[in-house]
Design brief:
Number of helices of chain B: 2
Distance between the termini of chain A: 56 Å
Structural class of chain A: alpha/beta
CATH topology of the largest domain in chain B: CPE0013-like fold
Strand content of chain A: 35-45%
Number of strands of chain A: 28
Distance between the termini of chain B: 60 Å
CATH superfamily of the largest domain in chain B: CPE0013-like
Oligomer: heterodimer
CATH class of the largest domain in chain B: Alpha Beta
Radius of gyration of chain A: 22 Å
Chain lengths: 417, 120
C-alpha cells in the first residue's frame, strides 16, 4: 500500500489552498484527489464576479479565483489525481479510490485534509408533492449545464428559494434566453443578500414572491407546470391561494449541506447544526490526523474564508506530521446570544504558540441586526471584541482571538445589538 | 420633481436609497456612507454593470470559456455586448487574462478570459 504524508480529498477552493500552503510550509509528499476532470471545484461554474475581495482586493469571477490557485499547484508540481473518486475512508486513514486511469487505488495517508465541499438540497429534502418528471433541477446543476457544458436547460423557469445561488441563476438564465417567471420563497424574508436581489432580479424585472412555495409539480415526461401557494406563519400552504404556473423547468435553490459521507465512514463526530465534522481551531476533527477545510465543515458565504480554513488545516496537518501537536486542551466555544453556530466548535489551547498568534472563529447570527458588538468571554471575562455595522444570517461573521489569552475555562461568544 | 428608490449594491449593508431630482439638482437620502450617495446618483444618471458570461471555444475539454469585463459597462449596452460575445468562436489554448474583445462596442472596456483553457 502506497504511503503519502498528506492526502487532500477535493480540489476545490479549500483543497487547493491547503495544498499550496502545505507546499509552502515545506511539505513535498502531497496528493490532491479530485473527482471532476479538472481542479477548481464549484468555482469553475461560478462565472459571475464577486469573489476574492478580501484576498486579492478585487472582485474576480469564481473561475479566475480558482485559476490563481491552480497556477500555483502547477508551478509547485503538486501531484493531482483528477477524475478520481474516493469511495472509502477509514479511521486509520486508509483511502480507497477509483479512477479510469489508475484503476483501484489503496493509499495509507499519514494525515488527511477533507475538502469535499457541500451538496445542494434536493426536491425530496424539501418534500414537494406531484409527479416526478424531468426538468426539476437544483440551481447548481443548472449552473453547470449552462456555464460549463453549454446546454439550455429549459424555456420557462420557476425558481424555488431566494438564496444567493437562486438569485444569481435567475439573472444567468435570463441572459441565456430562458424566461424566468418568478422566484418563490417560503420564508417571509429574502434568503440571499439584498444587493443580489437588486442586481439579479430588479435589473431584469423578475418578481420575487415571499411566503410562497411550490406545492406541486405537474407533467409526465417533462415538467409542464407547478402549483404555488401562499404559506402562513407556520409555513403551511393556505387553502384557496393556489396558482398554476406553466413552466418546463423548476429550479431549486433551497440550501446546502456539507458533504460528509466519507467523514461518517471514518467515524468523525459531526455537529448537529453545521452538519459538518466538529473541529478545533487547527481544523482537526475528532479523529487524530484528519483535518477539515471549507464547506465540508460548515457552509461559508465567502470563498476567501474557505481558502483561509484550507490554509489553517494545512498548518495543522504539518504540526501533526512533525509531532508538534500537544494534546493539552480543547475548549468548547459556546454559541451565546444571537449566535446560531460557531466554527470551529472547539478552541485548541496550547502553551506552544507564537507571539501574537491568533485563531479565527466564524459564526452565523440568528437575525438581522444593525451596529452589533461581538464579545468573546472566557470564564465570564471579556478577551476579545469586535464591532460590525451590520449582521445578517446569510453572512458569516468572524473574530480573531489571541491564542495566549485563552485560559482553561468556558469560552462563549455573544453578538449584542 | 422625480423620485427614485434604489437598493445600494456597494456593500452588504444594502441601504435603501431615495433619490430626488429637483430640476437636475440631485439629492440622496437613506445612505449611511458617501459611496451610497455616489451609487444612487450614478444609478440615476448612467447606471453601469459588470459583464460576466461564457464564449464558445473549440479544441478544449469543455465547449465554453468564462469571460469577464475589465470594468463596468453602461447598463443599456449590456445586452448588445453579450450578444456580440455569443457570436464568437474561440480556439484553445487561451490563458486567463487574455483579451477576448478589446474595447467592446467602444465602451473603453476589454473582455478578458476568466480561466486558462488548455488544448486537448
Amino acid at each position: 500500500m502506497r504511503e503519502i504524508e498528506l492526502v487532500i480529498i477535493g480540489g476545490g477552493p479549500a483543497g487547493l489552498a491547503a495544498a499550496v500552503k502545505a507546499y509552502e510550509l515545506g511539505l513535498r509528499d502531497i496528493l490532491i484527489i479530485e473527482r471532476d476532470i479538472e481542479l477548481g471545484g464549484i468555482l469553475q461554474q461560478c462565472i459571475h464576479d464577486g469573489f476574492g475581495l478580501h484576498r486579492f482586493g478585487k472582485q474576480l469571477s469564481g473561475s479566475s479565483y480558482a485559476q490563481k490557485f491552480i497556477d500555483k499547484v502547477e508551478e509547485y508540481n503538486i501531484p493531482v489525481y483528477c477524475n478520481t473518486m474516493v469511495i472509502e475512508l477509514t479511521e486509520d486513514k486508509k483511502i480507497t479510490a477509483v479512477s479510469p486511469q489508475e484503476g483501484l487505488l489503496h493509499i495509507q495517508a499519514k494525515s488527511i485534509i477533507l475538502a469535499m465541499g457541500c451538496r445542494e438540497r434536493t426536491r425530496s429534502q424539501v418534500r414537494i408533492l406531484g409527479t416526478r418528471p424531468a426538468g426539476v433541477m437544483t440551481a447548481g446543476a443548472v449552473q453547470r449545464y449552462i456555464n460549463i457544458e453549454g446546454w439550455k436547460t429549459g424555456n420557462r423557469a420557476v425558481i424555488l428559494g431566494s438564496g444567493d445561488i437562486g438569485l444569481i441563476m435567475a439573472r444567468r438564465m435570463t441572459l441565456e434566453g430562458i424566461f424566468v417567471e418568478g422566484v418563490y420563497e417560503v420564508m417571509p424574508n429574502l434568503g440571499g443578500l439584498r444587493r443580489n436581489k437588486a442586481q439579479c432580479l430588479d435589473d431584469y424585472n423578475i418578481p420575487l414572491h415571499l411566503a410562497t412555495t411550490v406545492v406541486s409539480v405537474h407533467g409526465k415526461q417533462r415538467v409542464d407546470g407547478v402549483t404555488v401557494a401562499k404559506v402562513g406563519p407556520d409555513r403551511m400552504p393556505i387553502e384557496g391561494t393556489e396558482r398554476y404556473i406553466p413552466c418546463d423547468l423548476l429550479v431549486l435553490s433551497v440550501g446546502l449541506i456539507p458533504e460528509n459521507e466519507l467523514s461518517r465512514n471514518a467515524g468523525l463526530e459531526l455537529h448537529p447544526i453545521t452538519k459538518g465534522p466538529i473541529v478545533d481551531t487547527t481544523m482537526m476533527s475528532s479523529v487524530d490526523g484528519i483535518f477539515v477545510a471549507g464547506n465540508v465543515g460548515a457552509v461559508f458565504d465567502l470563498v476567501d474564508y474557505v481558502s483561509l480554513t484550507g490554509e489553517v488545516a494545512a498548518q495543522g496537518a504539518l504540526s501533526y506530521l512533525r509531532g508538534q501537536r500537544t494534546h493539552s486542551n480543547s475548549i468548547e466555544v459556546i454559541a451565546g446570544d444571537n449566535v446560531s453556530f460557531i466554527f470551529p466548535q472547539n478552541f485548541y489551547a496550547t502553551k506552544d504558540h507564537k507571539d501574537n498568534e491568533k485563531a479565527t472563529l466564524y459564526m452565523r447570527v440568528k437575525k438581522t441586526m444593525k451596529k452589533v458588538r461581538l464579545e468573546v468571554t472566557c470564564n465570564g471575562q471579556i478577551i476579545a471584541t469586535k464591532k460590525e455595522r451590520f449582521a445578517t444570517p446569510p453572512e458569516m461573521l468572524s473574530i480573531d482571538i489571541p491564542v495566549d489569552k485563552i485560559l482553561d475555562g468556558q469560552l462563549k461568544i455573544n453578538v449584542l445589538e | 420633481m422625480v423620485e427614485k428608490e434604489y437598493i445600494c449594491i456597494i456593500c452588504p449593508v444594502s441601504c435603501d436609497l431615495s433619490l430626488t431630482d429637483d430640476n437636475g439638482d440631485l439629492s440622496v437620502s437613506g445612505n449611511t456612507c458617501k459611496r451610497g450617495e455616489i451609487y444612487a446618483k450614478n444609478e440615476y444618471t448612467k447606471p453601469v454593470r459588470m459583464i460576466t458570461t461564457t464564449v464558445a471555444i473549440s479544441g478544449s475539454v469543455h465547449p465554453l470559456i468564462p469571460v469577464i469585463s475589465t470594468d463596468m459597462v453602461p447598463k443599456e449596452k449590456l445586452k448588445e455586448c453579450i450578444n456580440l460575445l455569443y457570436n464568437l468562436q474561440l480556439q484553445a489554448p487561451i490563458k486567463e487574462g487574455d483579451i477576448i474583445v478589446k474595447n467592446i462596442l467602444d465602451t473603453g472596456v476589454d473582455i478578458i478570459a476568466a480561466k486558462s483553457v488548455k488544448k486537448l
